[in-house]
Amino acid sequence: MSVVSTHRVSGWGNTTPVRARLVDDAELDLSSLGLRGAIPRGLGRAYGDAAQNSGGTVVRATGETIDLDAATGLVRVSAAVSIDELLCHVIPVGWFVPVSAGTRFVTIGGAIAADIHGKNHHRDGSFGDWVRSVRMLLASGDDVVVTPQSDPELFAATCGGMGLTGLIREATVQLIPVSSSQMVVSTRRCNDLDAVMSTMVDAEDTNRYTVAWVDATVRGASCGRGIVTFGDHADEASGADPAAYRPRSPVRIPGPAVPLVNSVTGRMFSEMWYRRAPRSRDGETMSISGYFHPLDGVDRWNRVWGRRGFVQHQFVVPLDADDVVRDALATVAASRPANFLNVLKRFGPGSDRPLSFPMPGWTLTMDLPATAEVASMLRRLDERVLAAGGRHYLAKDALVPPAAVSAGYPDLERFRSVRDRVDPNRVWCSDLSRRLGL
Ligand SMILES: Cc1cc2nc3c(=O)[nH]c(=O)nc-3n(C[C@H](O)[C@H](O)[C@H](O)COP(=O)(O)OP(=O)(O)OC[C@H]3O[C@@H](n4cnc5c(N)ncnc54)[C@H](O)[C@@H]3O)c2cc1C
To answer: Within 6 Å (CB) of ligand 1, which residues are found?
Structure first.
């Protein structure tokens, strides 16, 4: 009898670790997967269960290709390459990723599969808007190149499709030109949520990037106070060396995962973070990694939540439903779970990709402990999100029920019909797809 060795696999939130067979794509035999099928995995930065497959197979894409046309900024890149690796290669020759997540340790495959958004969504859309083609392995075993012209439905379902249409092996992506590796950033400290929101709206017209940290540890009128930062790439006139992209290696927290975040440390941190921000500052020069990826300074920082893990809950509601954002922050402030990281962003127009998360509106991200109390608090909140016409981000989710996806993603049937066509036996599946009936 052959024994198949399995590995512990979990999302970044560490909420539901499972055991699965881990293979590189070259070792993958699609005909011998069994009923649990397989799911592609990048660097495991999805918070919930999107890149895990309990009792089944988890496939890592491989490859190191970065083939840049330095004249046009079109890059052919392996899906396994991370944004970090890509930036090291392209910034020195004047190009930058069109969309960056809050961490640079995300693969190109993961960026496409989650159709990631960044601080520039209001201006530049999400990652899929910049993908010109993907080469992918379908459930049939065919290795195909898919473009928006060759198979519009498969292309749209793959960008945001959470790995469920096939394994992306390579993509062609349009980069954006930059003339410096530095950012010029403005900061505003705002003493309530109204001020945060209006500052963000004003900043959008003239700034490529805007984002806010908001405080859900204070109650009353100050709940939702925050720090808005906005900015753009510096031009050469700032004197910055365009080739100087040298992110510092992350500091490692030694020892086992120990819970450092609780309601007291969360409140203390939030108060300190708010107070130390300047009331108003313009023209600050920052490095790309300092501006886009501050959390990457600490390796495996997710362990500060301890072994029980944490959820990152992210929803978007239409622009006129900003009261849902207000209620969400007030609900967290009232029930005082451990919390210090809440991020607010305003999305621009959405896309026609059926499982893509962004739509015009306010999106709020909250890091919270994985407890039963938090789960029931979020369930009540989620009803408000859906009633307002909002939805949840599948790359972050660990909790919502299937009904939340059918309500939040009206094109879900379109996605399913693509899967019916290219993968009728559901070879590609994950704990997320089973939990949500995708
Ligand atoms: C600190 C932090 C900050 C973040 N900030 C943002 C943010 O600002 N905006 C945002 O949109 N997201 C953000 N995220 C989420 C993250 O960008 C996404 O979850 C992304 O998909 C992770 O990429 P990964 O390579 O780690 O993929 P994994 O987490 O391993 O997988 C994520 C999904 O992509 C699929 N996938 C991975 N590789 C492939 C492939 N080769 N072919 C097909 N499918 C594949 C998987 O099946 C899975 O469904 C953040 C995450 C962290 C930890």
So the answer is: 12, 39-46, 50-51, 61, 79, 101-103, 106-107, 109-110, 113-114, 116-118, 162-163, 167-168, 295, 395
Task: Tell which one of 78, 100, 105, 107 to mutate to probe ligand 1, the residue whose CB is within 8 A of the most ligand atoms.
Answer: 107
> In this structure, what are the phi and psi dihedrals at residue 126, rounded to the nearest 5 degrees?
-110, 175
Q: How far is the CA of 117 from the centre of ligand 1 (A)?
A: 11
Residue with tokens 């207000």: 326
Strands (E), 79-191: 95-96, 131-137, 143-146, 167-174, 176-177, 182-190
Same domain for 193 and 85, yes or no, is no
Q: Closest Cα to atom 11, ligand 1: which residue?
A: 116
Q: In this structure, are 368 and 282 located in the same domain? A: yes
Q: Are residues 160 and 209 in the same domain?
A: no
Q: How far apart are the first and last CA of the chain?
A: 34
Q: What is the mean pLDDT of the chain?
A: 94
Out of 116, 229, 393, give the residue to mutate to test ligand 1, the one with the largest number of ligand atoms within 8 Å of its CB.
Answer: 116
What is the value of pTM for the model shown? 0.97
Q: How confident is the model at residue 250 (pLDDT cuts 50, 70, 90)?
A: confident
Asked if residue 36 is part of any domain, the answer here is no
Which domain does 262 fall in, by range?
182-399
Q: Is 390 within a domain?
A: yes
pLDDT for 237: 58
Structure-block tokens of residue 186: 């403005």
DSSP conformation letters of 188-248:
EEESSHHHHHHHHHHHHTT-SEEEEEE--SS-GGGTT-EEEEEEEEPPGGG---TT---PP
188 and 164 co-located in one domain? no
Across the range 184-209, mean pLDDT stands at 97
Question: The domain that contains 131 carries what CATH number?
Answer: 3.30.465.10
Question: Are both 273 and 190 inside the same structural domain?
Answer: yes
In a domain, 29, yes or no: no
Tell me how far CA of residue 344 lies from CA of 168, 193, 228, in angstroms.
Answer: 30, 10, 9
